[in-house]
Amino acid sequence: MYKKVFLAVLAALPLLAMAERNETIHLDEVNVTAAKPVSTTQPDIETAREEINKTAGGVTIIDMDGVREGRTSNFQDSLGMATGVLAQSRFGAEETRLSIRGSGLQRTFHGRGIKLMQDGITVNLADGSFDFPSIDPMATDYIEIYRGANALQYGSSNLGGSINFISRTGYTAPQFEVRTEGGSYGYYRLGVSAGGVEGDLDYFVSASKFHSDSFRDNAQQSADRLTGNVGYKISDIIETRFYAGYINNDSQLSSNLTKAQLEDDPRQATITAGPLAAQGISERDVNLWRIANKTTFLFDSTRLELGAFYSKKSLFHPIIDLFVFGTDTLGVIDQESDDYGITARLTQQGQLFGLKNEFVAGVNPTYGRTDAKNFRNVNARRGALINDFDQKATNMEVFVEDRLSISNELTAIAGLQYAYAKRGSKDQLITASGDQSVDETYSQTSPKLGLLYQLKPYVQLFTNVSRSFEPPSFGELNNRVANSLKAQKGTTFEIGTRGNSEFVDWDVALYYARLQDELLQVAPNASPLASQTVNADKSIHRGLELGLTARLPMNLESRSSLLTNDFKLDGDATFGSNRLPGIQRSLLRSELLYRGNDFLTGFYIGPTIEWSPQRYNVDFAETLYADNYLIWGLKAGQKVSDHWSWFLEGRNLANQKYAASTGVARNQNGVDGALFLPGDGRTAYMGITWTY
After folding, report:
1. Which domain holds residue 543?
2. How many distinct structural domains can be found in the chain?
3. Is the pTM of this model over 0.85?
4. Which of 228, 250, 429, 678, CA to CA, is 20 to 30 A from 265?
């Protein structure tokens, strides 16, 4: 900057001298500004948008500034309006049912089928599962969503793709911020953060506390989080960043209800009644430490990114004692996990056959070990030891992707990934049911081909075909029906468009996936906890993903996210081509906000809706259904100044009784069963943010 100023002054000196002598020459005003400092390890949201739009497939960026216009408690708050993402909270809890294109279709607990990342580094455990409380929305700047094989550039090969939560840094965070939220059923969240830049060093730290008594009985939640990162520019071409995080999450787990119980009183819980009363309230308590590093090297046309992480998790998880699959299981799940891995990613821009070309290659080895024990449940405390496993998971992902610009408008994308996974579980407490050890190895090479066409500067068309691959996690392997489980595989075809104009922004994709050996859970009765994992022979997942923002007259803005899900078995010996159970066939979330100007600058107010227009089956035989529903709410708020903002939000204001999520069963024969997880009733929240 100083050099530019010096040259500008030097160039003007002769003219200044002439002006002093003749007093008739006038100079044009020259403004010299310094470029905004940026991080190379953490691109800002504008850079991220440019990069993600190079993808020939369904991708989305969520700006957390928009999310913070309402409550920011769980994944449903953060991802509920994201194109192509199903995010449904369980009884208002942080644990959320999360699925993309039917990934982890029947998981109402833990996460599977999506690669969850924080700052480009995996958050999943080595067996592929993940915990929802591990991400703090208050520390997040924006979210990248790569649906399906569009996440190959990060090494993901599963059906659902990946979700990457990008943290705030000293370059993007306010110097100091306090945000507080409060509302119905004892809900409150308090977050404090600070960030800044000191020469070549920047820092960000965030601490938050959350508590909710919850709409449901026996569903109290609380969490404490501390996260932060420190970046340092070693030179003009090298930057390194260290990350650290701590989460302590305690959650009570309310029980599933029958449809009759839901309609009678959706707040009730049944786990502490009847013969199960001696087992107390089910819980899921997680304590997690995580450290990571990412270092980038920038050369003329090459970017090298190296990363590493280590996490340590403790899980205390009392549920109910069961005797299924010929063995005692569940009870108090008590686990200690250590997971670590490294990542290397190279991006090179240049020419190929005289055409503009971009090449990406990477490798992601990860390893995890879990000391997994089960105890008898005695009033939610450890009783006698009934299972003891030493679990080890190893993964290796190697991937390449090339983007060749055939013309200014047309880009061809080709990718290839090799994935290897090993799952070993040694039974260290062999009982009368025999040795339950597991030793399985899975591998697959998955290709991808795509085309991206720039129809206009603001309109893109895309299509691709890809293979997917997903080995089972220990959650599936421990509850398998057969002696072994196969990895889930599939081929997905996708076509779509995205763009923006003065009045409309859109993101639309149609996909069709043919799956083999899909990992499905089948409960032999109405207890999802007694579910068994099987490989379906063949199945089909197809659907529409639509995101639309319209800027309307009279300062109105409409935002909508529509999902249609058509998931079926394909010629199953028992259930033919029945619909796969446990997921809404269509789900629309939408809001219409008035955004003020003049003296109402920064003010917004308007209604919100969530609509599931069709009933959907909760058993494979299609004999029991969750009802359709429509809930509506209202939110308002204002960014009063650069320092103050507030919001008010009411949800389900008509107090509709509905099932937000369900378990699944094999065949209910039309008989009601405890498969339904009620959504929250009428609730209201408010929040205030002060920024310095």
Report:
1. 45-691
2. 1
3. yes
4. 250
